[in-house]
Backbone:
């Protein structure tokens, strides 16, 4: 039995928020600009343009650090209503190609075009059409990766940015994956990356030489995933998303946080990550915030509040109440927001 080869596109707008700003004000094109909340609000950079990147600025970087790297950086607060509108136009173009669209954020999506009959079935031509239409109708350039799986399509879209189109046909998967650094693999973050490096595993070719048992020993269940990815295997389907109800981030700590004081200190970096994730979703309207705490006895408690601001002080106050329920060391901490349902957004225009 032969498995059917899939055709997956990963489309990713080039520095999306900055691109919208430069489209609407060409005087911003040649100077370093970034979209993000101010240093005073402990903000992080959501997006920056390519001139800003030459200073080493990138998304998720604290605004304070970005301004140290480039003091004349033009910092814009961002017009997220506008970005969401451009995103809707771009997602609509994706849907003209196929209903199988999985958005990852405002400016990024996977498309499964395996069964698309137009373009003589050529995924490369579909990708070219997508890029052309997005540019013509919205003025935004999109980089597209084409591959038989999600993780390779995503790597491919990043391969030749900006305005890139990289195709990894099935017969080239083997050779492409071989020389791929393991840090490019889906799910390999800094911690796993460091452990792979300590084991002198730098490329997927190195990874392939490891027996599955060894990887399971070193990385638990994720070892199996590494074994497959190193061979270019990634069967995850493109999932047409139900409506997102919340956005959150969480951390499981290597060592339990012994008391409330250390737990409070762990909140700030979590809030920064949440801020960055909210920016990726275009700061959607919220109905409330929540804190999630797992104690060292594995009991989990979640505390919600309607209408509080997403600032550190509000999360601190929720954490204090949550911690008071058990008075125990903390194993996991999470912070998040509840989103206003899509249907209610059209009627209401809430401040965010
Ligand atoms: Mg992007």
Residues:
């Amino acid at each position: 039995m032969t498995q059917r080869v899939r055709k997956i596109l990963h489309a990713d707008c080039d520095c999306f928020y900055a691109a919208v700003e430069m489209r609407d004000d060409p005087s911003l094109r040649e100077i370093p600009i970034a979209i993000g909340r101010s240093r005073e609000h402990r903000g992080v950079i959501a997006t920056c343009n390519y001139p800003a990147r030459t200073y080493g600025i990138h998304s998720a970087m604290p605004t304070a650090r970005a301004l140290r790297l480039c003091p004349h950086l033009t910092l814009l607060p961002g017009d997220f209503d506008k970005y969401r509108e451009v995103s809707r136009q771009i997602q609509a173009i994706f849907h003209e190609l196929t209903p199988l669209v999985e958005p990852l954020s405002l400016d990024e999506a996977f498309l499964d075009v395996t069964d698309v009959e137009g373009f003589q079935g050529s995924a490369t031509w579909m990708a070219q059409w997508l890029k052309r239409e997005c540019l013509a109708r919205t003025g935004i350039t999109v980089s597209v990766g084409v591959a038989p799986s999600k993780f390779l399509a995503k790597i491919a879209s990043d391969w030749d940015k900006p305005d890139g189109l990289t195709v990894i046909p099935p017969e080239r998967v083997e050779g492409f994956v071989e020389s791929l650094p393991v840090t490019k693999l889906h799910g390999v973050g800094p911690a796993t990356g460091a452990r792979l490096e300590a084991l002198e595993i730098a490329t997927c070719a190195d990874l392939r030489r490891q027996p599955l048992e060894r990887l399971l020993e070193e990385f638990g269940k994720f070892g199996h995933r590494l074994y497959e990815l190193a061979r270019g295997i990634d069967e995850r389907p493109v999932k047409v998303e139900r409506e997102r109800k919340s956005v959150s981030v969480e951390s499981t700590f290597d060592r339990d946080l012994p008391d409330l004081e250390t737990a409070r200190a762990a909140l700030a970096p979590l809030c920064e990550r949440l801020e960055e994730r909210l920016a990726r979703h275009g700061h959607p309207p919220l109905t409330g915030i929540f804190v999630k705490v797992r104690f060292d006895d594995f009991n989990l408690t979640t505390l919600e509040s309607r209408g509080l601001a997403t600032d550190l002080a509000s999360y601190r106050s929720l954490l204090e109440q949550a911690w008071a329920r058990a008075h125990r060391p903390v194993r996991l901490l999470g912070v998040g927001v509840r989103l206003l349902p899509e249907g209610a957004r059209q009627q209401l225009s809430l401040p965010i």
In short: The CA atoms of residues 21 and 28 lie 8 Å apart.
